[in-house]
Design brief:
The protein is of the alpha/beta class. The protein has helices at 58-69, 78-95, 106-113, 118-128, 145-149, 180-193, 220-223, 235-241, 289-293; strands at 2-5, 17-20, 29-30, 40-43, 45-46, 155-159, 201-206, 230-233, 248-252, 257-264, 272-276, 320-326.
């Protein structure tokens, strides 16, 4: 097992080799994930703030690992793998009849992009072939990565634009609100509505804005303050269980148990309790001093890895039957 990580954490502690990773401030950044949540069409690009003291860029490490896995050995130049990946992706765009650069000369596009490597080359391609791009010379004032680099605060392209029904791939050309697979699964849902739960409580998860998964738990300024790894429980349930606010409570399922601090709130319905995911930083072999000082509890201990949702195939991580009791 090989990991690329800043820390020896719950996952990388199992690795045979941990390769050093650059800090987020030592590499460039273009936000792909959270633009899907934007209320306006924007583009933001951030250059690296500090020099890379690790040596190889992360994309170079991944290219090297890809070469090793493909049986090409460790002496392959990362640039060769990068060229292969980029050329393959570009040729797919050129061959795609729906692509804005369909039938363009791939060699000409590579020349126009210039000497960029790694993620920046892919980014320049996608920006220029995107809805606001210069289409490699076809739109005189279109977007390029070079233009974005001169706008440190990003570029606002205005409000979101409608994309329906053009972007729909359904045979009817409409949004399918009741796919047949879900309709076929409704009897399973109906059968569980009145089913008696183990102990009468169901456990659901949650996530805090300041605690995305486990990303931020080893940085003191992001975990300081009140404990956020608490068991949310309705006051009526807490009264029946004789559990006070701030008291330790035992949460047990068929697979294990954890002890967490109870937080009484009417924001959760009776019969349901909630633990956040991404906590439990107390495993042997870790080297995350800040996270380990505020470990919280690992809610995955309460889930059964063999209990799968039949429709999605995912492990069941919500509506887990649990018992609740005051800690001794």
């Amino acid at each position: 097992m090989v990991s690329i990580d800043l820390y020896r954490n719950e996952t990388s502690r199992h690795a045979h080799v941990i390769l050093p990773a650059t800090s987020p401030l030592q590499r460039t950044h273009y936000d792909l994930a959270f633009t899907a949540l934007s209320v306006r069409n924007v583009a933001n690009y951030s250059p690296a703030i500090f020099p890379n003291e690790v040596g190889m860029e992360e994309w170079e490490v991944l290219c090297k690992l890809a070469a090793i896995v493909a049986g090409q050995g460790s002496n392959v130049d990362a640039a060769v793998i990068d060229d292969f990946a980029f050329t393959t992706y570009l040729e797919q765009m050129v061959d795609d009849k729906l692509s804005p650069i369909h039938d363009r000369d791939a060699g000409e596009i590579i020349t126009m992009i210039g000497d960029r490597r790694g993620p920046e080359r892919f980014l320049d391609l996608m920006l220029r072939a995107g809805p606001y791009g210069d289409r490699f010379g076809e739109v005189s004032d279109g977007l390029t990565l070079a233009k974005l680099e001169t706008a440190p605060h990003g570029i606002d392209f205005g409000p979101l634009q409608p994309r329906l029904p053009e972007s729909l791939c359904t045979t009817t050309g409409t949004v399918d609100l009741a796919p047949q697979q879900i309709l076929d699964d409704l009897p399973n849902l109906e059968a569980t509505i009145d089913a008696k739960t183990n102990g009468g409580y169901l456990l659901v998860g949650r996530r805090h804005l300041r605690s995305n998964n486990s990303w931020m738990h080893n940085i003191d300024v992001l975990v300081k303050g009140r404990d956020r790894c608490t068991l949310l429980i309705h006051p009526d349930d807490a009264a029946n269980l004789e559990i006070d606010n701030g008291q330790l409570a035992v949460v047990a399922s068929a697979t294990g148990k954890v002890v967490a601090t109870a937080e009484l709130t009417e924001d959760i319905m009776p019969g349901v309790v909630s633990l956040p995911h991404g906590w439990g930083h107390d495993r042997e072999g870790m080297a995350t001093s800040v996270a380990t000082a505020r470990p919280g509890v690992n809610s995955n201990i309460l889930s059964d890895e063999n209990d799968l949702d039949p429709l999605s195939g995912n492990a069941t991580l919500n509506a887990i039957p649990v018992t609740i009791s005051a800690a001794g």
